[in-house]
Structures are given as structure tokens and as C-alpha cells.
From TrEMBL:
This is L,D-transpeptidase. Keywords: Cell shape, Cell wall biogenesis/degradation, Hydrolase, Peptidoglycan synthesis, Transferase. Residues 38-158 form the L,D-TPase catalytic domain. GO terms for biological process: cell wall organization; peptidoglycan-protein cross-linking; regulation of cell shape. One of its GO terms (molecular function) is peptidoglycan L,D-transpeptidase activity. The active site is at residues 122, 138. InterPro entries: LD-transpeptidase (IPR050979), LD_TPept_cat_dom (IPR005490), Transpep_catalytic_dom (IPR038063). GO terms for cellular component: extracellular region. Belongs to the YkuD family. Pathway: Glycan biosynthesis; Cell wall biogenesis; peptidoglycan biosynthesis. The keyword Hydrolase applies. It comes from the Bacteria.
Length: 158
């Protein structure tokens, strides 16, 4: 009984904190975004990504971001495109090819007014780069983390 009581109290505390934040002028998101909504958060300072759904962190992983701070855009964006074995247009490399730097999945978002085919979360053929500042602006994930995230995220997620 004690465990379930502790769990209930913890859930109430989390709910209250989220409720207070949602009604606060300091809520960091726009009015259309509510606590509990699915959300992908990328921390460029620590090169970490968190996938939060229904108020719980479902996935947390190291990532690689832009070579310079300005390359990986900052803001609230929406997932627009998802692809398995994405084609790499820049060097004409088909999806599934080991030379393809995008890896096995693409989750594209609408940064800087784009349509989800320029900026995205993707895999890498250079797994040693994860945790580094090396990309042209996209966010590289380890294969297993990317494939797990891909299976859970739908178009429209921010």
C-alpha cells in the first residue's frame, strides 16, 4: 500500500507542477502546446535528445548536432516527413547504401520555413560522431535510438 500511495503523491505533484506551468505566463511554449503533448527536446549544449510522451521520458539518447552553434536551428518545429532508408540527395546515394550518411531513418521537421526534407533527425554511418558537434545542421542519432523514436513519433509532433 505504501508504494502505491507514494506513486499517487508523486503523480499528483507532477500534475500540479505541469498545471501551474501551463497557467503561468512563463510557460515556454505557445498556447496550442499543452503539458502531456508529445514532444522531442534536443539540448544542443549537452548533445542529448529526449522523447517525452504523456508526461514521461520515453527515450533519452546522445546525439550529434551542428559543427557550429548556428547550424542546428533552435525553436519549436513540427515533424513533417518520415522515411525509411532515406535517399541522400546531396551526393545521389540511395537509401540503404552503407555510404549513405542518413542511416536507416529520417524524421524531418519544418525548421526555417522548410518542408521537412532539409532539416531532420536521422541516423549516421559514422556512429563515433554521436555526442559531437559535427553535422551540417541535422541531428544524428544512434541507430537503435532512432529506430525506436521513429516507431513512436507521428507527423505533427513538435
Amino acid at each position: 500500500m505504501r508504494w502505491s500511495w507514494t506513486k499517487r503523491v508523486k503523480n499528483v505533484r507532477v500534475f500540479l507542477v505541469l498545471f501551474i506551468l501551463a497557467g503561468s505566463p512563463f510557460w515556454p511554449f505557445d498556447a496550442e502546446f499543452l503539458p502531456g503533448d508529445p514532444l522531442i527536446i534536443v539540448n544542443k549544449k549537452t548533445n542529448e535528445l529526449a522523447w517525452v510522451d504523456q508526461g514521461e521520458i520515453r527515450l533519452r539518447t546522445k546525439v550529434a548536432t551542428g559543427k557550429t552553434n548556428d547550424l542546428t536551428p533552435e525553436g519549436i518545429f513540427t515533424v513533417k516527413v518520415k522515411a525509411v532508408n532515406p535517399y541522400y540527395r546531396k551526393k545521389n546515394i540511395p537509401g540503404g547504401d552503407q555510404r549513405n550518411p542518413l542511416g536507416s531513418r529520417w524524421i524531418g521537421f519544418d525548421a526555417k520555413g522548410t518542408d521537412g526534407r532539409i532539416y531532420g533527425l536521422h541516423g549516421t554511418n559514422q556512429p563515433h560522431s554521436i555526442g559531437s558537434y559535427v553535422s551540417e545542421g541535422c541531428i544524428r542519432l544512434p541507430r537503435m535510438s532512432l529506430e525506436s523514436l521513429y516507431a513512436q513519433v507521428e507527423a505533427g509532433v513538435r
